[in-house]
Amino acid sequence: MTTTTAVRRGRGAAAAGLLAACHPLPAAAVTLFAAALATAAGRGLAGGATAVGAVAAGQLSVGWCNDRADLRRDLAVGRRDKPLVAGTVRPAAVTLAAALALLVCVPLSLAGGLLAGTVHLVGVVAAWGYNLWLKGTAASWLPYALAFGLLPAFVTLGLPGAPWPPPWLTAAAALLGAGAHFANVLPDIADDLATGVVGLPQRLGARYSAALAAVLVLGSAAALVVGPPGPVTAYGWGLLAGTAVTLLLATRRPAGRLPFLAVLAVAGADVLLLVVQLRPA
User: In this structure, what DSSP letter does residue 147 have?
Assistant: First the structure.
């Protein structure tokens, strides 16, 4: 193997490690959710692109910040699935990437207007606050609820006249965010407790956290279905029934990743409903 080939492989491995450290699945899910909201609300090509770019940059910054902040605890419990622990990417590179993504997020957020940008940046700051402090407190759910709840406002406030989203949409997004928090933490509760992280899911335990995640996500779906004016559609009733069955099956084994994947599946179905409900007449 030549020196050039070795360098290229090393750079490729580092890039792959950096990508894995950003929590790509949740980041992509939230970004796609924002894209669907922007499309349904009628933000247009330019406005939609900047909004989606802002959300993507914000999610990347949050993911990298999370892995960097958790490095000491991940090393203590031997989390070899984490790129920083496995050594595929350097801590300094993750720190730099998080900072650069946050810097990019600011102008992209403000491109939709001062109020819209401020709302989004409050959500991003809340997520960073979770990583750096609130993760180990009883208020660990709050940044998720706040950041998700503000996402529809970021999209609609960038429209002409800067309208706020309907309350049912804000409530649905906040409930989904809080539910995602409880579901996402389930596989890591034992490791978290071993390293002194005692957020609300860790205090409740896997069984009760899984049940609460299911209730919150089902409440989110219910808000989307019954919140808008007019009769509930057949798709809406089907969404509620499918959500209940999916969550019931997924939370029977609360220690794994299945509950969180179920939340992502429900969120995808919610997006389809939102596209129809928010589409301009």
Answer: H
The residue behind tokens 């709050």 is: 142
Q: In the 3-class helix/strand/coil scheme, how is 222-239 assigned residue by residue?
A: HHHHHCCCCCCCHHHHHH
pLDDT digits (tens, 9 = 90+) for 224-239: 999 988 898 888 898 8
Ranges of the chain whose pLDDT falls below 70: 1-10, 276-281
Do the Cβ atoms of 102 and 124 come closer than 8 Å? Answer: yes
Residue closest to 171 by CA, chosen among 185, 152, 156: 152
Residue 49 in tokens: 């692109």
**87-138 confidence digits (pLDDT tens):** 999 999 999 999 999 999 999 999 999 999 999 999 999 999 999 999 999 9
Question: What pLDDT shows up at residue 6?
Answer: 46
State the distance between the two ends of the chain, measured CA to CA, in whole angstroms: 61
Best CA proximity match to 130, nearest among 32, 197, 216, 208: 197
Question: How many other CB atoms sit within 10 Å of the CB of residue 166?
Answer: 16
Residue 259 to residue 246: CA distance in whole angstroms: 9
Residue carrying the six token digits 């006249």: 161
Angle at 199 between CA 173 and CA 204, to 5 degrees: 90
